[in-house]
Write the structure tokens for this entry.
Amino acid sequence: MDNPCIHIYSALSNSPLTLRDLDEIGLDRIHEAKEKKKAALENFGIQSVLDLLETYPRRYIDRTNMITIADLEPGVPALVIVTVESSKLFTTRNGKPMVKVVVTDGHRKLSITFFNQKWREKELQPGMEVAVFGKPDLYSGALQMTNPVVDRVGDQTGRILPIYPQSEKSRITTKELGKWIVDALKKCGPRGIADPVPQSVIDAHEFVSRQVAFHDIHLPESNDHHIAARRRLAFDEVLRVQLMLVGRKAQWERESAGFAHDTKGHLIDGFMKALPFPLTGAQKRTIKEIYKDLASPRPMHRLLQGDVGSGKTLVAVATMLAAVQGGHQAAIMAPTEVLADQHAIGIRGLLDSLQVSDDSQLFGARGLRIELLTNKVTGEQRKSILAGLADGSVDIAIGTHALIQDKVSFKSLGAVVVDEQHRFGVEQRSRLRDKAQESEHGLVPDVLVMTATPIPRTAAMTVYGDLDVSTLDELPPGRTPIVTTWVNSPVEIEAMWASVRARLDAGEQVYVVCPLIEESEKLEVASAQETYDQLTHADLAGYTVGLLHGRMASAEKEAVMTSFRKNQTQVLVATTVIEVGVDVPNSTSMVILDAGRFGIAQLHQLRGRVGRGALQSHCYLVTQTADASPRVEALVASTDGFVLAEEDLRLRGEGTIMSVNQKGESDLTLASLQRDFDLIQWAREDAVSIIAKDPMLETLPLLRDELDLLFSAEDEEFLFKS
Ligand code: ADP
Ligand code: MG
């Protein structure tokens, strides 16, 4: 209700307003917002004064940057503030709506054309003042603009005009929003807005106060003002996320008891001595970081990031051996059967000659018992493995999600490795950890999560904020960098197949990746089949070609993979099922058809299937259109997964990582993973030092309250289970 007697400052307390106070103050205190508009605002997701204040301008118009129509130049983007003279709707020859608008700055006129924006006719009424930003061009001798950005500025004054997101549907204009926000700010004036962040932190980063920030983001006097305001408010957002992550991590560590593994001993020594190559510097550093965690009774919860081929398997094995050496068990979970099979081959190879001490044996030692558990393993064999897991006679279990099924129990699971974790749901990962706690002593195992999809450091700090991160940023020596070529004309495609045939004739092997059809697996399989038929009849006729796709039975897939591994098949035509972890060093070329459809991370993963041996490898990215895809260009320019991850983040723009990996869209409105690297870094460090001194935030009740207010229990569950 619109009741002028009620003012915000009539609330009981006189202390500065907290976010909770602001959240509890309804829109009825904003006089200007009448009933009908209030419903519209609620539609827009704005229900309280806090929501209103947190509706930030999407950009600003700086009047000092504007020019007159007379000064417009063809091809040079510019801003003019003008009055609408007329707007008319037409239909183009091919039936599309076209709106022609004439505007004036008092001296000259400019005509503007909008295609496919029928609503502009009604929106832009004669007499209305608008800011128009666009690139003018010459059209039959006169300057005009096509589809420019238009903001209604109305009678707003001031040098810098905030432009709010506006919604046609809920009929709220940027001008109305601006008015209510100004009203809300005014009403907050007497009590002021509380600042819950420790003064020392604010001073250290030279931030403005929260009160100033809320004012200046909406009513900036200059560009510097809104920039400083945004940084302060964005910092608050990331600080809250970090406090949450760091706080929960600290709590989890306090409350759970883990193993204090012995990381020095015969088994690990024997393993290191038997390695056919020296560890890379990054492997040494990473293993040291992991062993420090393993030796402490605090359960490890660590992410190992490493580009394809950086040697993560070895680090995983070193981790598992620490548990096995102490008489416990270890498990590694992979997302697919192909990958689990491959791990089994690789890990058995690495551990072949090792012996564990066993007093029940004549010589006091026995070989390691390593078992593979997938859904393919059935009958007596499965029974025996399950029994071995339960009685402790299986030392290392390798498997798929079959490892976390109800029937599986471990005697004493001391370390868990989860490979390629982005393939697993959050739930599945925590299930393996829970499983371990069900074992006899109830200790929490050490967990190492491995990913071959590097993510930028800032994103890692947020998305994996409750994990410690180790990074394998060095490839083993002796790799020949992959040569990546962009192929997009018939002549180039001809030349590519000729090079591929030359590699095949030299005894090497080749992958051909079929076009990605995200909409339908069925279509994708059909297109893979078509690619296979075409190649076997034309460009690769006479060579042995295999086909691998997601709709094949697992026995069939395995047969195809085995034949390729043994070099009985020369060419593997496949859908993206080969993306993860396949390791055949003799394959030296990869052709990716319709590469423009794939994302950077996916292309990088695919490409990582070649270049695994000493031979020179090639990757061909075939695209249909003549336009260079920036993603394809990125792949041609770099083979460094971390560089590509940064580029990916840049190309995809703001917030994508958050929305993919984390549901809390509301958590970061202003902060951007890409732009605010420094803020995220600071927030991380500040959160760590705040939590170290005061884990429950008892001395910072306002901050504590803000976290309670802004993060739902569900958010917390989500953030901390990853
Ligand atoms: P990732 O899983 O990180 O993609 P892998 O663990 O499969 O990588 O290792 C890729 C290849 O590199 C394997 O063939 C492995 O034997 C080899 N490798 C691992 N570490 C080293 C090293 N320090 N020196 C030489 N080769 C190594
Ligand atoms: Mg691997």
